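G., before I forget:
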Amino acid sequence: MAIPATSLSRPVPRQPAWQTTAIRAVPFAVALAAWWLATSPWGGLPRYVLPSPGAVLDNALELYAKGTLVSAILSSIGRMLLGFAFGSVLGVGLGILVGTNRAVAAFFMPLARFFQAVAGVIWIPLAVLWFGLSWKSVTFIIFNTVFFLVFYNTLMGVQTVPRTLANSILTLGGSRWDVIWEALIPGALPGILVGLRVGVGYGWRSLIAAEIIASGQGLGVLIWEGQRLFRIPDIILGLFLIGLISLTMDKLVFAPLQARTIERWGTSARAPQ
Amino acid sequence: MADSRAIHRHDHTAREAVLPEDAAKILFDGVTFEYIDAQTGERLRAIDGLTAQIRENEFFCILGPSGCGKSTLLYLVAGLLKPTQGKILVGGRVVKGPGADRGLVFQEYALLPWRTVRENVALGLKIRGVSREERDAVARRFIHLVGLDGFERKYPHELSGGMRQRVAVARTLANSPDVMLMDEPFAAVDAQTRAVLQEELTRIWAQSRLTVVFVTHNVDEAIFLGDRVLIMTPRPARVHSVIPIDIPREERSWAHLDRDPRFAALRGRIGDVMRNLGDGSASNHDRG
């Protein structure tokens, strides 16, 4: 075969893992240093505006010793996972169903656009009326937020799969089911992953808002009570923990999933690191 | 179908003009295709009462100006589109929908990005429920046939355009169709690769003795590959003429043909027809 191999995949020169991690830690270290400096005597920011890193850490240890910190984290994560699981499973399922059937899509698309615009925290008043001031309301709000994001992105993902892929499966003797399974679902994966990742981010925001109104426990309550009782270290701690949990979830679940699927297949632009 | 194949396999070169209906491998019988333009809502006629016959084991090229409905014709044979009027018979049976007996090689490869080379080649067999060991064995054979040994585990995006089209050809062949339909398969690869692929396609075809319908807008390619070349008119497409290519198969290599007077004569004749049909893009000097 006289085909030159020049266009074959060239391995990107890879850094050792510890180096990558170290480089990514730099911005956080800089931010932390800036925070520390600003709240130090040289920076002169008063502690009722922004408490120092040390004060936040002390506060975290105190809450941890009392046991309230761990229970707040666990209850928030539990609600988040429950709402997210329902929302994403239903969102992916219905997105594929609607995306593979033109008549169903024509019926659902306007509804989907409408409800996506009003998804999430707008439903808190109704949720409280339906489910009371409990974890159920919070979970419902997360579900509501995640569902429409995942549904909409899945639908878009299915609709962007090139028509020729479906045609190629049909001309190989495949059925409609083969088209869905072999082409439409894997082809929709870039969209599905966007939906899930964005869903996590918006899910957390909804959780905080819903917990403030409808629940007596969780990270949202920690933040809200912090404002009410003027415990600013609580606010900073809640904020930091939510960011950390989101980042960990992304790193442990979505980044590996993406690396193993759409990045390996070349169907995504390389994800922003 | 098996009978007609047995009868006409050996003597089809002797029959030039009209074959009885059941002798043609593919028969276009007054095929008209109309569609509604999505923008204007107008009813447009792409193909207008086209009648033609393609023989068993023939390498049949369809040549026409860009946008004349050549691809539409292939999609009709593949069963992905339905004629507005008339009918298409393949192996004596009216085409009603897509089927594994008519494989289609797409211009844009249409490989599944999430499947490796081996999985793409074995896809038709997987759909039919063939066991994993058997499909791996078949895939290996066809990957070897198209010269991609060692690339079994690569994903399509890791391959060049020419290599992807080899995979697409292997995928179609591995599904053992009666007819291989090819929609400008080499239009997107560079000229050198295209020349190599054209020579290999004729080698593979000679071994398999498939019926091939090959659509192109390139005069040289049609002459190089075809037993006969059907020239289509601009839209709405009809048959302008069918020209037999009388250059023996063993003399069809680019090294040889570039200096062959018969090739030059055919190229001149068909090129003139194409120019008169008003296609500026038909070029004599470029293979794609």
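The beta strands of chain B are 26-36, 43-54, 59-63, 85-90, 93-94, 102-105, 179-183, 211-216, 228-232, 239-244. Residues 1-17, 280-288 of chain B have pLDDT under 50 and may be disordered.

More on Monday.
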